[in-house]
Amino acid sequence: MPQYVLALDQGTTSSRAILFDQAGSIQAVAQKEFEQHFPKPGWVEHDPEEIWSSQVGVATEALTRAGLRPRDVAAIGITNQRETAVVWDRRTGKPVFNAIVWQDRRTAPFCTQLKEQGHEATVRAKTGLVIDSYFSGTKVRWILDHVDGAREAAEAGHLAFGTVDSWLVWNLTDGALHMTDVTNASRTLMYNIHTGDWDDELLDLLGVPRSMLPEVRSSSEVYANTSGEIFSSQTPIAGIAGDQQAATFGQRCVEPGMAKNTYGTGSFMLLNTGTEAVESTNQLLTTVAWKLGDAPVEYALEGSVFVTGSAVQWLRDGLQIIRSAPEVEALAGSVEDTDGVYLVPAYTGLGAPHWDPYARGTIVGITRGTTAAHIARATLEGIAFQVADVLTAMKKDAGIELQELRVDGGAAANDLLMQIQADLLQAPIVRPAVTETTALGAAYLAGLAVGYWGSAEEISAQWQLDKRFEPQMSADEAEARHAHWRRALDRARGWAEDDA
Ligand SMILES: Nc1ncnc2c1ncn2[C@@H]1O[C@H](COP(=O)(O)OP(=O)(O)O)[C@@H](O)[C@H]1O
Ligand SMILES: O=P(O)(O)OC[C@H](O)CO
């Protein structure tokens, strides 16, 4: 019986399970959306129990679809929405609060306080991050401060914190293992990416007891076997990485200077910088790309844009001018240009390189001639402008001219968006045949650890081109549009400050 690798891809809006074969081809997929909770403006929560049950559900479904049993799985790789914080009680295994999602802005005032106290340089030097409510640390503090009895229980050693990978491993092993991988640790604001350990000074600053934190392991090694009813066959869990790092690995951006951009809920561009942790002077993040077993840690520069694909969801659910996300392509393509309309999709603030939690969505340039098609096209441009701003910062930090940008994620299927992106970036866009690169990366990490794949070269040879988009717009025209975009951005900045 041939064996397969199972990737568990726990994303922001859905849980997915994908079975890959030795050629890196998909054998079966199962996916389930789960509920998004928005208790207050700017707050976003998930139910950790639903994250777990949906993830187990899709894993079982994928196996059933392929007619396989757990013992046909050579290894499990896990990849996950990053930064989202789960706190649970070790005694019961139950969460003490909903997961506070990476998009959640509730800790923005505390972050402002930390910045005013002058901690930014220390935080950047140790973690590679900026002080922002995006990262897990201030979310954990919020739970300890707001859930009755949580701080006392944490100080007594009863509470555990984990990003979503930790929560899944804890459940897959019936509470036997409390761990995370180094990529997920690097997104918490509590982990020193140079010493490779949780940092006591940062833990003091955030008021998080060290006893809550998971053990940090590499991204590719056998951590444990599964136990419990679903994976009763003791399948090795052998690879873990945050979803953007996994996509970078799945896209085979494994040499310094190679970059990918994922278009999911948000967009995340990662540029491989090898074993050198390049400190950004242009408001990007320095992050761990992966650590393969005992090999040295490799790093990336990252630009995180919070709202891209979800801006298309807003056209569908909020404005209701399309019925499904793919419909945006025909609507936006029905007009030549936006007729002067610019849309800044800062619905949950702005991430890199602006870092403004108080920015809000803005549409400017509307006239009596503006139609739904112009708004749709301005949305696609708004996505592409944000990504272009990140690339500009990246070029300055790394001092490189990008040869090409590899793309993936749900919205990368949109040819019009990809063409607009190539035009505004003035660089070629390259889309691979398998765009499930996040899951593929997790599968590769796990499969390499158990010898399912023999070498990095073997898997790199599996990458195949689907389509290449060359810039068709002149550099002058692209710059003229950027100038308008920058004016629109200025109008979006700081909008919600007075409500904080
Ligand atoms: N053809 C399309 N054009 C534009 N956006 C799309 C298209 N198809 C999907 N999307 C957007 O892509 C996102 C889903 O991508 P996915 O990679 O599954 O995201 P995530 O992993 O963040 O949940 C949604 O926000 C959806 O609106
Ligand atoms: O789940 P995604 O694909 O929206 O990715 C979320 C990122 O990991 C957040 O940093």
TrEMBL record:
Domain Carbohydrate kinase FGGY N-terminal: 4-250
Catalytic activity reported: glycerol + ATP = sn-glycerol 3-phosphate + ADP + H(+)
EC number(s) recorded for this UniProt protein: 2.7.1.30
Residues the entry annotates as binding ADP: T12, R16, T265, G309, G410, N414
InterPro entries linked to this entry: ATPase_NBD, Carb_kinase_FGGY, Carb_kinase_FGGY_CS, FGGY_C, FGGY_N, Glycerol_kin
Enzyme class: transferase
Domain Carbohydrate kinase FGGY C-terminal: 260-449
Domain of life: Bacteria
Name by which UniProt lists this protein: Glycerol kinase
